[in-house]
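This part of the workshop introduces the protein records we will be handling. A record pairs a protein's sequence with a compact description of its fold. Backbone structure tokens are a discrete shorthand for how the chain folds in space. The question running through the whole workshop is how a given chain folds. The record below serves as our worked example for the rest of this section.
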Amino acid sequence: MIIGAGGDASRDGLPVLIVTGLKQEARIAAGPGLTVICSSSNPVQLREMMTSFDPASIRGIVSFGVAGGLNPALRSGDIVIASEIVAAGKRWTTEAQLTEMLISLPVKRRKRSVVNGVLAGVEEVVLGQVGKAALRSSTGADAVDMESHIAARYAEHYGLPFAALRVISDPAHRALPQLATDALKPNGNVDMWKVMRGIARKPSEIRALVHSGRDFNRALRGLKVYRNRLDGAPAR
């Protein structure tokens, strides 16, 4: 993987820590020279994992995965390379050299946009359009996730280079169905029985679930494309 991290030369040769929220993201991210952790979309669990992690064993941190769209101009599959992270009134700036490297990677942009933007960090999934619009208004963020702010705080505390690469899954105009969140297991898998029971109780959720599934798959494809570019492979 061609990710480098500026800063302390004594850390050269150490792996980069990749922070993800879902098993699918972790599988895409895995590769030589990387240590990948997955929080199962649980901020409390991620903090525990980060607390037990040895900062001397890595040379930098990258938050990697999907995100909810806040900027109405962004579609599912568009890529946000963070310039900064904002959460609970605090802001963290990403490492400039690493961020510029991520932005400069060649990607087929007719299908997806690559923007340098702001990520908002939250403790719970933001489901509806109203909530997304309010978060956009209060933070100016382009997208939202539940891992980047935790990783950024850790990186700042230990003086580690930090960057964040997130692909839009549900765009700003799309409300995530509550069922999609409720059916997520602690290990990141989807409880299909819970999905089926939810649909049986509320068939109107089917359309929203189909849209969410398409958006999510498009976002994962975007992640794979960018991950391939990090290894120097052709974009697909």
The longest helix spans residues 205-230.
